[in-house]
Amino acid sequence: MRTGRPSHTAQHNALFRALEQRFPQPLFEDPWARRFLRGRYRLIAMLPAATVARVIDKRWPGPRAAVSVRTRYLDDAIIRALSDGLDQVVILGAGFDSRAYRLPGIERARVFEVDHPSTQAMKRAVVGLQAAHVTFVAMDFATDALGDALRASGFRSDLRTLFVWEGVTNYLDEASVDSTLRFVAHSGTALLFTYIDRAILDGSARFEGAAESIDYVRKLGEPFTYGLEPRQLETHLRERGLELVEDLPLSAVADRYYQADRPVVSGFYHVVAARCRG
What we know:
Elements: H1 8-21, H2 39-45, H3 49-59, H4 63-84, E1 88-92, H5 99-102, E2 110-115, H6 117-127, E3 134-138, H7 146-152, E4 161-165, H8 174-187, E5 190-196, H9 199-202, H10 210-219, H11 233-238, E6 242-249, H12 250-257, E7 269-276
Parallel strand pairs: 1-2, 1-4, 2-3, 4-5
Antiparallel strand pairs: 5-7, 6-7
């Protein structure tokens, strides 16, 4: 993303979540999503949701529903973790994520929202007066040290902490992802994160909608730059101090939530649950 303006992909994700709210049986509740929309995104969100969804799914099959599926999956996982007891939740690359304000029980934990200052500035203008349990941490994953930024904001590595890293790794480089995984492994209790299958970057496998997604984010100026190999993920995480609990393509996760009229969901996009081993 470019300095001085919020992420386009963050706006897209907010649009997809806002559209989901207008369906007869939405996968989740997010009353904040539409408030983050600006310009054309706000106008699109005012059109009939079903019609907009059909147009998006036809032109870019997969990502709209994938965002809704991963949102529901992560919501469920975070709520379970909160019920087991958490002191801190760290949302890495928070974008327009509103979980700190909408998930039941999260106000009992301290929430750190870590993101690029340009996107964060727009978010803070929307949410207004900072909630007592939320701390904003401005940083750039490509240039700043996560540990330094968090510790300067009051983060404590001796507390029960869940890290959430949604929709970010595919825009970083190997060094940034690696250093973040190692920090989380030694500083947290558990990690939820997403990644894209490396095969769509090197062309070694084909997925429905992958070519359209790659082309679109490239045109936005926020191209996919990094992916992981699913067959090697367990070893990859273990070498960095993490224990794999679950790794699922979003196309498989979708089977949990859609009973009928299942839209195309990006099969190259994965969601992961892991434990921190240090």
